[in-house]
Amino acid sequence: MLAVRSKILVPFFSPIIFTRSIRGNPRRLPQDDITFRVPESQQEVKSKEETKVAKKVVKEVKQKTFRQQVKGLKYQNSNTEVTIDNQHEVVRGAVAMFHDIPYEVQLEMKQRKHKELLERLNGNKNIRSQMKPGRFRDIIPSPVIEGYRNKDKMSVGLGVNGDLVVGFFASSKAVCVAPDCIDIIRDSHKQVARVYTGFLTEHVSRDNVSMYLGQGRGWNAEGWGEIMVRSNYKGELMVNVSYIVNDSNKTCPEDEKMALLEVFSKSGLPINSFYLSEQSVVWKTKQNTLLAGDEFLKEKIGDVFMFLGPDTFCQGNTPVAERMVEVVRSELDTEQRKTLLDLCCGAGMYSLALSEGFRGAVGIDQEDTRVASLNADLNGLTNTRYLTGSIESHITGITHDLRSVGATASAILNPGRSGVTQNLIINLRRFQMLDSLIYISCQPEDDRGFKNLQLLMSPDHSKTPSKFKSDPFKLVDSVPLDMFPHTHHCEHLFVFKR
Predict the structure, then answer these.
(1) Buried-most residue among 42, 189, 285, 442 (CB within 10 A)?
(2) What pLDDT is attached to residue 401?
(3) What is the Cα–Cα distance from 147 to 301, expressed in whole angstroms?
(4) Please, is 397 exposed, middle or buried when counting C-beta atoms within 10 Å of its C-beta (0-12, 13-18, 19+)?
(5) Which stretches does DSSP call E strand in 297-427?
(6) Treating both helix axes as pointing N-terminal to C-terminal, what angle do 422-430 and 391-405 enclose, rounded to 10 degrees?
């Protein structure tokens, strides 16, 4: 049972992070370009004719480019009319787009995506000489393909019958469906969604629930909103419930807050931390308040222990995260005279795991790095430090420190899906003591991420003043890792050296 904290709470503030949805509304495609799904009953078909049809569909999947395949499935799913009978299949397609494609075929598709990306880069004649031939390895599969997600953020909306539902929007029609049928989500997370649904149904007026009310009515942007749940290696849970206010003078009703705690306390779920996140739409602020339990959830990745807060970034598939750390370790030239830069460090996973092979490690993130510093203490590390702010603002100081001791540096850059600014890439290029860089992205095909990769390898413009000249990097290796089975996402790791 959760231990309710005293009324003297210690809030902390962090800015709202806006992220693009993994589901978009792609441009309308011709009907011929739609790729249909592999039938779910493929393994059970008995007739030769059905087997022939299934093989034909798989062949079609393999022949399409990755982009064509994803666009076709997005179009198909977003325009499907959600009914009582098909709602679970539609929401599975929305959250786990590849759920009915055999896993071996998914891996082939993502391997092809990686290859297509390299071919696009190679199409730029200005950087072709900077790309080492045979520069990619086979995709690393996920050891676990069901129930692997250690964090889920679920929405509140109206179901196909008009009932209040906590789950995911099934299509562009904004119909919300419970996550019960989605195999990649852990059972404990599904149970959290059911408990929260019960609380909203029994203890809260519909007028005080922030959700889409349907065509013509729009959004009710006030009241109880989405819920985040994350779980660790022990199965313990952290829950963070959002409450939306329209101005700075309104707060969550105290009676509803206490009812929420009581409902979850009686659920029997192994909740380690329970937060309320009050968010102002007008002022674009967010205040996380710990209502019960511990401030952090303790996670373990390989030999590293990490505290995680409600907003701390950490990879969503722990077994693949462990493999990614090992790949990075194998690609870095570890030397006691070198410094490791962990850029966009989040909880500090890379620097925590790899700092012992270096003179020291410096982690930088725009978000609060307090948790990363605590994680260094948790693991008994004395050669790491973490800085909050933009990477550009700290590069000059780091350059001065390294120059004073004659050290060189290796960097790991793991930005969000939108990549980083071109100005940061230029600053990293001009950082002459940086001799190797590993760029990690789950969406490098997007415009800014792709330009990041190009700029790392591009020669200086002929009119660049001598004091601003820099040496381009060479792409010497790359590897895709399937961090997100049954979805169209994949982590891509690129190794640059100079």
Answers:
(1) 189
(2) 87
(3) 17
(4) exposed
(5) 297-301, 304-308, 338-343, 360-365, 384-388, 408-413
(6) 10
- Site of tokens 């209502």: 291
Taking CA 192 as the corner, what is the angle to CA 182 and CA 313, rounded to the nearest 5 degrees? 80
The 10 Å Cβ neighbour count of residue 116 is 14
Using CA atoms, how far residue 41 sits from 45, 73, 100, 101, 265, in Å, is 6, 19, 9, 11, 40
**C-alpha span between 479 and 453 (Å, rounded):** 14
The residues, ordered by sequence, that sit 6+ positions from 175 with a Cβ below 8 Å of its Cβ are: 82, 87, 157, 158, 159, 160, 169
φ/ψ region of 377 (left if φ > 0, alpha if ψ in -120 to 50, else beta) reads alpha
Q: Does the structure show a pLDDT above 90 at 246?
A: no
Please state, in angstroms and rounded to a whole number, the distance separating the CA atoms of residues 101 and 54: 11
What is the distance between the alpha carbons of residues 478 and 116, in angstroms, rounded to a whole number?
13
Of 26-40, 85-99, 129-143, 474-488, least confident by mean pLDDT is 26-40
pTM of the model: 0.85
CA distance 259 to 2: 13
User: Confidence class of residue 423 from pLDDT cuts 50, 70 and 90?
Assistant: very high
Tokens for 288, please give them: 């996380």
Q: Evaluate whether 183 touches 146 at the Cβ level (below 8 Å).
A: yes
Six token digits for residue 90: 């539609």
Contact 166, 156 (CB under 8 A): yes
Question: What is the Cβ-side half-sphere exposure of residue 332, based on CA atoms within 13 angstroms?
Answer: 32
Instruction: Determine the residue type at 111.
Output: Q
Amino acid at 57: V
CA distances from 285 to 161, 223, 245, 292, 311 (A): 34, 15, 10, 22, 13
Both tokens of residue 222? 């006030």
Please give the single-letter amino acid code of residue 159.
G
Ramachandran angles phi, psi of 287, nearest 5°: -120, 115
Got the DSSP string for 287-324? EEEEEEE-S-EEEEETTEEEEE-TT----S-HHHHHHH
